[in-house]
From TrEMBL:
GO terms for molecular function: triose-phosphate isomerase activity. It comes from Aeromonas lusitana. This is Triosephosphate isomerase. Involved in the gluconeogenesis. Catalyzes stereospecifically the conversion of dihydroxyacetone phosphate (DHAP) to D-glyceraldehyde-3-phosphate (G3P). The gene is tpiA. Keywords: Cytoplasm, Gluconeogenesis, Glycolysis, Isomerase. Homodimer. The lineage of its organism: Bacteria, Pseudomonadati, Pseudomonadota, Gammaproteobacteria, Aeromonadales. GO terms for biological process: gluconeogenesis; glyceraldehyde-3-phosphate biosynthetic process; glycerol catabolic process; glycolytic process. Substrate binds at residues 9-11, 173, 212, 233-234.
Length: 251
């Protein structure tokens, strides 16, 4: 049985005070639902604080991005080994905002996935289509292409220690959410595509849904057979909302 994973992507949000309040507020919810894995991805500047605050709790954490390089003249970047040294379990890679705002191609995403994994972190590979691609009916082709770039570089076995997050770009921060049936259909296709390379790996990999998940929609989404939790944006910044989502993953 795949365990449900609920991961908060805080993006460029937070203060020292709000981070402390969030972690302290989420600790009871995480403890109350031991069947659910709970993780947060804060801005990198707060990793040291999150490391301290999560000690002794069941809340894991990760980074929102990692650089391709381990060291060198790359101002503003963070090496995967640096993230690992601060206790990170995960690192997002290929989030739609990185692909769009920072022009990260499928090849760049695959290369980052590789160095993240080699550093001992679990890459959370974000894939998904734009509204235009969704309306054109090319969703399956888009996610296959994004997955294939990683498989070609790292092999299907790499997904034994990775998470996939399907995020329809048209549902991120818009308040729009794919219906459970639409989301399940894409998740099932992702798993089927991976199974074409290795059925055992495909059966084990966690596939998260990311796209305006709320406490009200969580249970229905996570109740689908191929949806193994969520990559949560705005709602992860609010203790009550994120706690409801954690509870929804436990049902």
């Amino acid at each position: 049985m795949r365990q449900h994973l609920v991961m908060g992507n805080w993006k460029l949000n937070g203060t020292k005070a709000s981070v402390e309040a969030l972690i302290k507020g989420l600790t009871p919810a995480a403890a109350a639902h031991p069947s659910v894995q709970v993780a947060v991805c804060p801005p990198v500047i707060f990793l040291g604080l999150v490391e301290q605050l999560t000690a002794g709790t069941k809340i894991a954490y990760g980074a929102q991005n990692a650089d391709l390089h381990e060291s060198g003249a790359f101002t503003g970047e963070n090496a995967p080994s640096m993230l690992k040294a601060f206790g990170c379990t995960y690192s997002l890679v290929g989030h739609s905002e990185r692909r769009t705002l920072h022009a990260e191609t499928d090849d760049v995403v695959a290369a980052k996935y590789e160095v993240i994994q080699k550093a001992g972190l679990v890459p959370v590979l974000c894939i998904g289509e734009t509204l235009a691609q969704f309306e054109a009916g090319t969703t399956n082709t888009v996610v296959e292409t994004q997955l294939k770039a990683v498989i070609d570089r790292c092999g299907i076995a790499s997904f034994e220690n990775a998470v996939v997050a399907y995020e329809p770009v048209w549902a991120i921060g818009t308040g729009k959410t794919a219906t459970p049936e639409i989301a399940q259909s894409v998740h099932a296709h992702i798993r089927q595509y991976l199974a074409g390379f290795d059925a055992a790996v495909a059966a084990k990999v966690q596939i998260l849904y990311g796209g305006s998940v709320t406490g009200a929609t969580a249970a229905d989404l996570f109740g689908q057979p191929d949806i193994d939790g969520g990559l949560v944006g705005g709602a992860s910044l609010k203790v009550d909302d994120f706690s409801q989502i954690i509870a929804g993953a436990a049902k």
